[in-house]
Design a protein that fits this description.
Number of helices: 2
CATH superfamily: Nucleoside Triphosphate Pyrophosphohydrolase
Order of helices and strands: EEEEHEEEH
Strand content: 25-35%
Low-confidence stretches: none
Strand order of the largest sheet: 4-1-6-5
CATH architecture: Alpha-Beta Complex
Number of domains: 1
Number of strands: 7
Structural class: alpha+beta
CATH class: Alpha Beta
Helix content: 10-25%
Largest sheet: 4 strands, mixed
Length: about 140
């Protein structure tokens, strides 16, 4: 009897952004689609072909919230690849943090139903996916 290797898993590559202000708020979007439609989440999304995760983070942040930063403004928090973190399948995300001035204007766009600055000490009860873990990592790095 010979062992066979398991079938390779399809892995999707994403980038997420923790946008913070000095006054202690974080930017969240209300998801306008499944999974987690209506839940609050960090801005982010798929990395396109020929794009780095850092550039995807810049693009997704602008598309979903109207907040424009440069790739150099972002600080990498970490890579999040826990199996089961997304109900659609295996997703690996590179998460970034950026600090922007208080009262930076934002607006919901693209796939976001709403975009809002939330006080870090008064976040929604349940964030989508593992975004509470990503936010915790951002606060400790």
């Amino acid at each position: 009897m010979t062992e066979t290797e398991p079938e390779p898993e399809t892995i999707r590559y994403t980038a997420d952004v923790v946008a913070l202000t000095p006054g202690g708020t974080v930017l969240l979007i209300e998801r306008g689609w499944e999974p987690h439609k209506g839940s609050w989440a960090l801005p982010g999304g798929h990395v396109d072909a020929l794009e780095t995760s850092r550039h995807a983070a810049v693009r997704e942040l602008a598309e979903e919230t109207g907040l424009h930063v440069t790739a150099g403004d972002l600080r990498q928090i970490g890579v999040f690849d826990q199996p089961g973190r997304d109900p659609r399948g295996r997703y690996v995300t590179v998460a970034y943090a950026v600090v922007v001035p208080d009262d930076t204007p934002i607006h919901a766009g693209d796939d976001a139903h709403d975009a809002r600055w939330w006080p870090l000490d008064n976040l929604p009860a349940c964030l989508a996916f593992d975004h509470a873990d990503i936010l915790s990592a951002a606060k400790t790095t």
